Amino acid sequence: MDTVPDFEELSLPRPLEEIPAHTDINNATSDHSVKTLLSWSAPGRPFKKRGKQFYMTAILIAFLVEVILFLFSQYTLMLVVVSLVFVSFAFAYVPPKNFHYRLSSEGVMVEDHFYIWHELYDFYFTTRNGQDILNIRSQAMIPGVITITLGEMQKDHVRNVLLPYLPFREYVKPTFMEKSGNWLSHNFPLEKASKV
After folding, report:
1. In this predicted structure, what is the pLDDT of residue 156?
2. Is 7 domain-assigned?
3. Which of 65, 83, 62 is nearest to 74 (CA)?
4. pTM: predicted TM-score of the whole model, two decimal places
5. Which of the residues in the chain have pLDDT under 50?
6. In angstroms, rounded to a whole number, what is the distance separating the alpha carbons of residues 171 and 122?
7. Between vectors from CA 5 to CA 4 and to CA 7, what angle results, nearest 5°?
8. Which domain holds residue 72?
9. Where are the alpha helices (DSSP H) in the chain?
10. Helix pair 75-93, 52-71: axis angle to 10 deg
11. Domain count of the chain?
12. What pLDDT was estimated at residue 2?
């Protein structure tokens, strides 16, 4: 007759007398200490102060779209257009608060959200509104891309810190939506570029 071996309960900690003598209990976590590699504060999103021309042009375009939607009795879409204009005005008018970013030996921390290196895929840099941005793509669909503004931090310094943990992409092919947005903003700007 086969006997079933006795298995110890794995959810309970082992008594001290069962721990091997060569293990130092007080310094058990010293080998796995988390080291901060780089930390800085920068705005939570790229921000550019807009002039009156931006708001007037946006209101004019929204009004024309509203008239067309009204003629086709698309009242729900009219509400969507109004809400999108409101959100874009809010983002253009209210400057973002500063976020604290930290790169450590275990992962990336943005304010109170922490991403371990195994959750992340690769990184690349972009420039938006004259500001350098670090983009870190994640393995999961959400968040997809973690967008971090660099502020005063140098791209080369951040790249050197990230390279041991993530692969760097020199070029990332823009999506159809990004190409369309760039084409629209280049050919139909809502305000004239300021002359320096």
Report:
1. 94
2. no
3. 65
4. 0.71
5. 10, 16, 19, 23, 25, 28-30, 196
6. 12
7. 125
8. 36-169
9. 52-71, 75-93, 155-162, 176-187
10. 170
11. 1
12. 55
